[in-house]
């Protein structure tokens, strides 16, 4: 094994291209750690927010960015059991959050803690999850599950578990929505997805088999379209990626007792237009639940489900592990035209 590695850091967080690279020593695995050789990393909207100082939670100085990685174990600490050299693995977003709700925002990789945009990652073995060696999924697809898969699984199973035949609405065609669509379809749910692009909607219907599509530019009152599709019953689950700007329509089309998972904040309402969420939620008896990624336990459940069904986790595009490639990946993600995940292949 080499003694040096390439490490990306954010020295100043003023734009999505403010990276520096350095050659650093490859660390050793401590007593309760494993050393993971990173094969691929997946980007999230969070990574753009951190790079541009728009992330509302703590970020350490000179941080190694990005939280989601897949790789293989190349060294095992003396007090670690249950792993062997060569095991393919992924690492939970917050290594301290093994089960239950996340207690704070001080443990997430790539923010308050150094992340995965490097060749080698030493990490506490308790936060590492083995993925099936026999799987046909690429490393980038497993990396794409870390935040996106856990978030989607948390929305579907973290509170009231999804049942076959129920209906799920996904806002937009980003990574969480498309991954959630793949999981929900495999679980026997009916699915609806929204977008402003007929081209994207047609692609998602052809490739991922979504049952119904709604162009919210053509149908600005898209909640009514949802009610039409469901014959007035509403949907059982909503992936709420817009935030305050779309929450009213989400409550308008949720079924009584349904679950709205607040995942994103892409559409912010003006203060004077802020809906009365408490009153609206009461009127439907629905659950409005914030999703802060999820625990290692949830990610393990997701990995087992994906592995047993050999699901095709959506990765739209991969980039190279070079300064040019990393900047291009961030820029591509920021343009918002992707369907599924954007990844960087380290190997």
Automatic annotation (TrEMBL):
InterPro entries: ADH-like_C, ADH-like_N, ER, GroES-like_sf, NAD(P)-bd_dom_sf, Zinc_ADH-like
Boundaries of every Enoyl reductase (ER) domain copy: 12-344
GO MF entries: oxidoreductase activity
Organism whose genome encodes this protein: Trichoderma harzianum CBS 226.95
Protein name according to UniProt: Enoyl reductase (ER) domain-containing protein
